[in-house]
Amino acid sequence: MKAPLALIDNLENLPNPFTQFEPYALTCSTLTPLLQQTDFKRDFQLALCFIYSYNGSKATFNSYRREVERLLLWSWNIKSSPTSHLRRDEIEEFIHFCMSPPSEWIGIKNVSRFSNKLGSRLQNKEWRPFVSHVSKMNFRNGDAPNTKDYSLSQAAIRATFSILSSYYGFLMQEDAAQHNPVSLIRQKSKFVKKEVTRKQVRRISNLQWDYVIETAEILAEEDPLMHERSLFIMNALLGMYLRISELVADERSAPVMGDFIKDADGNWWLKVLSKGNKERLVAVSDDMLQALARYRRFRDLPDLPTVAEQTPIIPKNRGKGAMTSTRQIRNVVQFCFDSAYARMCEDGMKSDAEDLKVATVHWLRHTGISEDVKIRPKEHVREDAGHASMATTDKYIDTEYRERHASSKKKKIRPD
């Protein structure tokens, strides 16, 4: 089975399909002959309009593009049908396909869908709709991704159901589909397993964090030009449990020092634009304020921000302006994790350091929230974290686990 080519370009290279579809479709039809047929051309336009509606967030746009593009490719190439014509049983067939796609549809690395060549956007023949990955630990051990090892996580399956259901709801509103075949699937449980218990939150231990932040401080003392910024990033990610996207500039916002705000009582807050394009205020603790002042002194700025100050919070290492790459933040955090791991091993605590080999940036957010719910009202933590519901914050309260495990401590395998 031949690997399909990408259909939908990146947000920055995608014209508004509501107003500029015809010239874009004409270009695409030379790459995808099916688009010369009216039904498929209309299917493509509706799909683009649906996806483009989520252009307020690049991450959300990419998620919706991934799921709808996979459906388009499968429906067009496997079923020879527009997606608007699919039945419930065919959607089930598609889900099974996603769970076990043919090897030709699976890549072993993330590559761009399109590339620039002589002023044109051309489809990248190396791109695949599905990508096989290896865990961080296995990669460090020398394992390489293999198409035979591809698997679709439960979270990914749930996302597929959710996004495609929204897509068919949109098609119904546009009178392109008479029903929502996703909502007609009565036994989603055969695809999505119900969780019988609450998952443990992935976080680093207090000992590991002590080593990580101490390591960042040592690095900053040894090479301030490179690592004063690293130290502030680590403090901000845990101390205000920010998401990585909330520190970098993107099409929605560019975090600046003026986003640190002092209220009438002299308390400091950080205004961030979070998921769903919602602004929230994060309380800035005294320790975090001291970390901010140290970072600003290094940058030859007054200790505390001024009203409407436009200095980027996280600047680029080279050039002017704010950092725009989340990958750079990940690299900073990973270097601190790796350095802390090495120090712990040198101190004879290799077993205590193991989590740092697999930890990710998001673990810092989890760690900060998990520690704060022990000492602060959970309503306050919820607001600072930007959780949509209290149920999300409750996941970080592990008293239930402590009590449950304590009651099992004295259980005997051979009862008296």
Automatic annotation (TrEMBL):
Q: Which organism is it from?
A: Marinomonas phaeophyticola
Keywords of the record = DNA integration, DNA recombination, DNA-binding
Question: Residue spans with biased composition (Basic and acidic residues)?
Answer: 395-406
Disordered as annotated region, ranges: 381-416
- What is the annotated localization of this protein? Cytoplasm
Q: Which InterPro entries match?
A: DNA_brk_join_enz (IPR011010), Integrase-like_cat_sf (IPR013762), Integrase_catalytic (IPR002104), Integrase_recombinase_N (IPR010998), Tyrosine_recombinase_XerCD (IPR050090)
**Which branch of life, at top level?**
Bacteria
Primary location: cytoplasm
> Which segments show compositional bias classed as Basic residues?
407-416
Q: What range does the record give for the signal peptide? A: none
Q: Domain Tyr recombinase: where?
A: 202-410
The name this protein carries in UniProt is Site-specific integrase
Q: Which Gene3D superfamilies match?
A: 1.10.150.130, Intergrase catalytic core
